[in-house]
Amino acid sequence: MIFTAHIDIMPHDALLDPQGKAVEGGLAKLNMANLTQVRVGKHIRLQVEADSLEAAHTVVDSACTQLLANTIMERFQYRLEQIS
């Protein structure tokens, strides 16, 4: 079975997000000061071949915790879609 994983990685809410603050400042300069609390993260899409949905979850979770996300500073969530 082949699955597409859609992974969202964001900084923990308790941590400062310098990139988000920079974007928020840029928005204010464009007269969009009503857009606040900007947080910038990553979206990763990948395909995984696995024998089952549970196995795909295991592989994607492992990829996130070991490489894709710095779990000290970031949180992640993902969803899987079966494509074949």
In short:
This protein has 84 residues and is an alpha+beta fold. The protein contains two helices and three strands, in the order βαβαβ.
Can you walk me through this structure?
- There is one protein chain.
- The protein has a single domain (2-82), classed as Mth169, Chain: A, CATH 3.30.1280.
- Helix content is 33%, strand content 32%.
- It has two helices and three strands; from the N terminus they run βαβαβ.
- It has helices at 18-29, 53-68, and strands spanning 2-11, 42-49, 74-82.
- A three-stranded antiparallel β-sheet has the order 2-1-3, covered by helices on one side.
- The protein starts with a strand and ends with a strand.
- The relative contact order is 0.35.
N→C terminal distance: 6 Å
> What overall form do the CA principal axes indicate?
elongated
Percentage of helical residues? 25-40%
CATH homologous superfamily classification: Phosphoribosylformylglycinamidine synthase subunit PurS
Strand elements, count: 3
CATH names the topology as Mth169, Chain: A
Number of domains: 1
Low-confidence stretches: none
Query: In terms of quaternary structure, what is this?
Result: single chain
Output mean pLDDT.
97
User: Largest beta sheet: what is the strand line-up?
Assistant: 2-1-3
With helices defined by DSSP (H or I, 4 residues minimum), what is the helix count? 2
What is the name of the CATH class? Answer: Alpha Beta
Q: What is the second-level CATH architecture?
A: 2-Layer Sandwich
